[in-house]
Amino acid sequence: MDLPALIAHYGYAAVFAGTVFEGETVLVLAGYSAHRGYLDFAAVTGVAWLGAVAGDEFFFWLGRRHGQRLLARRAALRGRVDAALRLIEAHPAAIVLTMRFMWGLRMALPIAIGLGRMSWRRFAALNALSAALWAPLVAAVGWSFGALLTTHAAALHRYEHWVMAAIAAAALLLRAVLHRR
Phi then psi for 105, rounded to 5 degrees? Predict the structure, then answer.
């Protein structure tokens, strides 16, 4: 099976799984794949929206249900979490609407918000709106990148699969390095 067939077969599942966590790289690649015709752009943004909302709702629930227990095990985090909670309590709507654009904090912020006083219903509404802005915007970056490559570098077509694989590998490597630290 070649790479376009793999993308067409597993692409939407990868978008969903990637966007449950910090899925910018997966979503950019999916936007590029949509430009190339391997995936449908509307479906990519819909699946990305669903994955992003589901992931953040889970992490909000995790913070609401188990956050205090998690903090008790990691006392060193308490000061930073308290500072984050003060910021969240001061600007709750702004934090929820922009948290998706804060790379590296996509899982931490919903957990912290779950520790706060925001109601589940308000979080769900703001979270859905935030994902509705984020998914097409980030996917459009990948689409635009594809359009730029097509327009200005038609000779690179034979290397596109290697470039996509290299970007995915670099993102995984960066995530592993950051996770170790």
Answer: -120, 5
Q: How many domains does the chain have?
A: 1
DSSP state of 103: T
CA quadruple 154, 156, 157, 162: dihedral, nearest 10: -160
pTM here?
A: 0.77
CA distances from 151 to 4, 37, 109, 110, 168 (A): 20, 16, 39, 40, 23
Going by pLDDT thresholds of 50, 70 and 90, the confidence category of residue 87 is confident
Half-sphere exposure of residue 67: CA atoms within 13 angstroms, side-chain side: 23
Which structural domain range is residue 19 located in?
Answer: 3-180
Distance CA 179, CA 153 (A): 35
Q: 77 is written with which tokens?
A: 């985090």
Q: What is the per-residue pLDDT across 61-72, written as a single tens digit (0 to 9) for each?
A: 988 998 888 778
In terms of Cα–Cα distance, which of 41, 29, 34 is closest to 169? 29
Alpha-carbon span 109 to 99, nearest angstrom: 7
